[in-house]
Design brief:
By secondary structure, the chain is of the alpha/beta class. It is built from 8 helices and 10 strands.
Length: 299
């Protein structure tokens, strides 16, 4: 594994891996935001990194320049990081992974990631994601799930969130990783949150909270996600102010609310041809949110 830099000896009793990728299925930065929260609040230890040189085209995923506390400039490269958590009661631990969707060599990337997982004893993978959907910011985000493991699938069905996969079309790295995992005999489960299509380019704490609620319930982590309540309330209030400035957007959101309230179907509602232009609507809302942030508004 020449593309992996280990910072310590990997444990071999991490039976479950939880992954989240930036990019294709990271609406509202919910997948990566949820993984970061798990790393922080489980006090997970940094295990390893993937070398970005092999998987990223730096004119497409440019590194950042950041200032260090000492006042020096440092380059921050695209990151793909592994973390480990060992519960205090001696139970099998977790391998956590987050990273940007790579630009190239997806099959090699997937096999390298799974090599690390296999070395750590992983038998099953939980993948977190979020998609843009016709759902209003004023309602709790919906989450759907699917699994290759019969027990996990039964759990999803009991919770009422299981959805048989039916999507056909372009896909993201998480699907490629799970397909490769299946070929190796790993069981997997995918959670997919739904984020309002008209609020893009910013972190959505409501979807992060929804994904974390199901992960901690599935794995028995006992994490308290109520700490997101204040951030969710502030986020919704900010969106309310953005929507209030345009009657056409208000009407669109009311339509989404009626659709949400009138159906138990938790699959993402596809945008209709007679919907407002989603790109124009998103731009108007984002312009307001950016101006609100610059003027000192709450996030």
């Amino acid at each position: 594994m020449d593309s992996v830099e280990f910072y310590r000896e990997p444990p071999s009793n991490l039976t479950t891996m939880v992954v989240g990728f930036g990019g294709w299925v990271n609406a509202g930065r919910a997948a990566t935001g949820a993984i970061r929260h798990l790393v922080r609040h489980l006090s997970a230890s940094h295990l390893a990194s993937l070398d970005p040189e092999a998987f990223f085209i730096f004119t497409q995923q440019r590194p950042d320049i950041r200032m260090t506390p000492e006042g020096h400039r440092a380059i921050r490269w695209p990151r793909s990081e592994f973390f480990t958590w060992q519960p205090p009661d001696g139970r099998a631990g977790l391998l956590l992974f987050w990273g940007r969707e790579p630009n190239q060599r997806w099959r090699t990337y997937s096999q390298t990631l799974l090599d690390v997982a296999e070395q750590c004893g992983v038998k099953r993978i939980v993948s977190l994601g979020a998609v843009l959907a016709g759902t209003p910011h004023s309602r709790p985000p919906r989450v759907t799930g699917r699994s290759t493991d019969p027990e996990w699938q039964a759990q999803l069905e009991e919770w009422g969130i299981y959805r048989r996969p039916s999507y056909e079309g372009p896909t993201g790295i998480s699907t490629v990783v799970l397909e490769a995992a299946s070929q190796r005999g790993f069981a997997s489960l995918s959670f997919s949150g739904q984020a309002p299509h008209y609020v893009q380019g910013r972190e959505n704490p409501a979807v992060i909270q929804a994904l974390l609620s199901y992960v901690t319930r599935l794995l028995g982590l006992g994490l308290d996600v109520s700490q997101f309540d204040t951030a969710v309330k502030a986020f919704c209030s900010q969106c309310d102010r953005a929507v209030a400035g345009d009657p056409s957007i208000q009407a669109h959101v009311r339509d989404l609310e009626q659709d949400y309230d009138s159906t138990d179907d938790e699959g993402p509602r596809m945008l209709r041809d007679d919907d407002l232009n989603p790109d124009q609507l998103m731009q108007e809302v984002e312009d307001f949110l950016r101006e609100d942030r610059e003027s000192g508004g709450e996030v």
